[in-house]
Amino acid sequence: MYTKILGTGSALPKQRVTNEDLAMLVDTSNEWITSRTGISERWISTGESASYLAAEAAAKALADADVEPSQIDLVISATVSPDNFTPTVSCEAQKALGLSRATCFDLWAGCTGFIFSLMTADALVKSGLFSHALVIGVEVLSKLVDWQDRSTCVLFGDGAGAVVLSSSSQPGLVTHVSGSDGTRGDVLKIAGIPLANPWMAQHVGESETGSQSVICMNGQEVFKFAVKTMESSIRRVVELSGSSLHDISYIIPHQANNRIIESVAGRMKIPREKFFTNLDHRGNTSSASIPMALDEMNRAGLLLPGMHLVLVGFGGGLTWGASMVRWTR
Ligand code: ACO
Question: What gap in Å lies between CA 111 and CA 281, rounded to an integer?
């Protein structure tokens, strides 16, 4: 028993924010942002919730897959910016789309969340417990960005991407690799709600780090970590699948920074064109970036039956992972 991708979808908020718009907010410029990151514009929620974007992307994926809501029995949403602690984004998407048969839960793994969710759904479908899964990556990171911090606020965008999976007699999701290093979590952190209750000596209105819940990042450390783990993840997943780098039609990386991707391509001697990027017009959408890129490729007709794709991500935690996909549609 195998698992394959039947359809893809994505959704964006309505508000487009250009580099020029950001230059009116903080001391930056279009030249600095494009040359250091490759990002020109991103889409920012002015009211769209994570659940709304997730349901919209999922509805499009269901239509693309020609699968009825009643057939879905599993929903996993990757996010670090849910609307609520409970109900989850997945349960909210269930309500919006009438996925009455589904078991729904969210998964947190920083920007690697989509890869971990795909791997989890693949294992659960292969086990025979479920037959049709929706895997969603969704973020409204704009509420976690410090809009006064020019080193981070220029990087991120909001959005959602989704895929529909089904059990299959042919391999579609070929294999996965994954890893984590909890000792290096401080390199990229979003603090949670601080502990406060009537039994504490003093109510502290701050988290243990003394910061609010905003993205704090050591950009250069993340850069080095990203280049190293993307290269090793691609090599391992290709090796594990029994193929070679030459067999890969496209690598779909987490869309964080053009320079990271160029550096990986250069080190691995893979033509840059094999790495699909859309970060110039999406920014870094964390868990949503890989499924949004996949959907853009699918709708542009870039994906042909039998093609081998590597999806590869890295993120807070620290976490990393890659999936080998054989496109079967
Ligand atoms: N505009 C203008 N100047 C800026 C900006 C900005 N938006 N941001 C920082 N600078 C300045 C700094 O203040 C610094 O000035 P100084 O020399 O006077 O002190 C100078 O630019 C250089 O700063 P660095 O942080 O060294 O810049 P760097 O070249 O490393 O680029 C960046 C920063 C783009 C964040 C880079 O480190 C990077 O891409 N890191 C990878 C991190 C990443 O992509 N994270 C994504 C989120 S994590 C994830 O998705 C898993």
Answer: 18
Name the residue with the closest Cα to ligand 1, atom 51: 315
Angle between helices 50-65 and 289-299 (to 10 degrees): 40
* Pairing verdict, β 215-217 and 103-107: unpaired
- Pull the structure tokens for residue 66: 């020609």
Q: What is the average pLDDT score of the chain?
A: 95
Quote the pLDDT of residue 148. 94
Is the pLDDT score of 209 beyond 90?
A: no
pLDDT above 70: percentage of residues in the chain: 97
Main-chain dihedrals φ then ψ at residue 257, nearest 5 degrees: -165, 130
Maximal C-alpha separation, the chain: 63
Give the integer Cα–Cα distance in Å for 42 and 142: 10
Is the distance from the beta carbon of residue 109 to the nearest atom of ligand 1 less than 6 Å? no
284 lines ligand 1 (CB under 6 A): yes
Q: How confident is the model at residue 203 (pLDDT cuts 50, 70, 90)?
A: low
Which is the catalytic residue, given 254, 257, 278, 308?
254
Closest ligand 1 atom to 259 CA: 39
Active site residue 19: no
- For the segment(s) 175-326, the CATH number from 3.30.70.60, 3.40.47.10, 3.40.50.1860, 3.40.50.720 is 3.40.47.10
Lowest-pLDDT range of 87-91, 196-200, 288-292, 315-319: 196-200
Of 91, 104, 111, 153, which is the active-site residue?
Answer: 111
Instruction: Please identify which of the residues 19, 257, 278, 284 carries the catalytic annotation.
Output: 284
Indicate which residue's Cα is closest to atom 9 of ligand 1: 151
pLDDT tens-digit series, residues 25-71: 999 999 999 999 999 999 999 999 999 999 999 999 999 999 999 99
For residue 36, the ligand 1 atom closest to its alpha carbon is: 34
CATH 3.40.47.10 holds for 2-169: yes
284 labelled catalytic: yes
